[in-house]
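Lab manual, section 2.4: Encoding a predicted structure.

Procedure: take the sequence of the chain (470 residues), apply the prediction step described in section 2.3, and record the output as structure tokens. A sample record is shown.
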Amino acid sequence: MEQPKIVQNFGRNLRFKPSHTYSPINKDELIDILEKHKSGKIRVVASKHSWSGLIETEDVLINMSHFDYVKIQENNHETSVTVGAGCKVKKLLADLNRKGLTIPSVGLIDQQTIAGATATGTHGSGKHSLSHYIESLQLACFDENGKSAQIVDINEGVALQAARCSLGCLGVVVEMTLSCIPQYFVQEKATFCDTIEEVLILEKKAPLQQFFLMPHSWKFFAQERLVSLELRRRGFAAIYRIYWFLIIDLGMHLMMKLIVSILRSRRLVHTFFRFIVPSLVFHNWLVTDRSDRALVMKHELFRHLELEAFVVRSQVVEAASFVKDILQYADDGNHQLSDSTIELIQKVQLFDSLSSIKGCFTHHYPICFRRIMPDDTLISMASGVSEDWYAISFITYVEPRDEFYALATFLANSMFELFQARIHWGKWFPQTSDHVNQLYPKIDTFRDVCYRYDPNGVFRNSFVEDKLGF
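Recorded output:
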């Protein structure tokens, strides 16, 4: 056992001190920990890149960082990889690349552990979430009576669907096996559009694209992305990566931090997004690079807090219009809401709560849209329907965050009522168990699976008990 110390997450909105902290080096040690604390409460910590209360515990916290192995295997001409739960996505991608392989989906950042990323439904754009691609996993849990710790293999049925995105409620993931695909290259270029309809048309030829609604100019910026037929870097890709890192990942964020955290100028925020940001982007620079370079950003360089809402494809156009109107109203209390927004708010009787965000917050980060194909899981954000989903991300770099919390709460509640929006489990999560029960048609099945592997609720903290309605 390690000396307990205060744990703080990446976004600095969580701070707690567990009574016991462990970093087991093998399965036997892990089982001993579970046996010792089978009457307590156990949670697992990964990269601490979650803003929700998933990792919080006052009892036992387990760090699986020693389980960081990568084993590649081939069976019936199909390649898969078995990876330890504590392995970072960055290491997994690097080890696979040395064999000319990669995983089917890559998230925006690669600093997460594979178990933490899959347990919360982490996703990229244009593919399923990472959770969807889990073929099997090994789990440290309890027997059906909750009396003995054990390690079980889960490889089929509703148990696998639950374990793919489990929020840590079934037990401690030891390792998982994911499908592999040959390494591929991505062709990318930047395009500005006036409307979201124009962006969605681009998606037909660029199915991996992600796009951004730029606040205060209210233009759309699309990163058109598609799988390249060529397996080599083109378009001065090395220079492009340096440019993107220095100008966007570092330069743009440093300027924004200066404006919103030090100068705190609403007018400069407007100027920044209307005139400066468009000048930082090279339009139509066509570049081809390896997938794990092209699809990842250094989003973890600056501490921030994020809310991410998911809506189905048939509602994304209306949702984008609504978001634009609400952000303008939050920025300027004199902004006249459109007739369609007024009608929507009247429909769900939210006019009283609308007053709480009037002129309260100037949004200062591009609103990111990413498309996720439906998942074969029980409670990942993209589970349960046949339509594609769009994740809409709202980020703040300002502290204190009270004004952002007010805006984010209104967005979460209103988008739930209007579009049945789901909130990312790993982001800031204001939704309630009533929302969750309505949003996830298989939530009862998920709870049943949890009771099977953890009958005494050892792996459930107050966050999951509250949000999942145990």
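Check your result against the sample. Residues 70-182 form a domain with the Uridine Diphospho-n-acetylenolpyruvylglucosamine Reductase; domain 3 fold (CATH 3.30.465.10).
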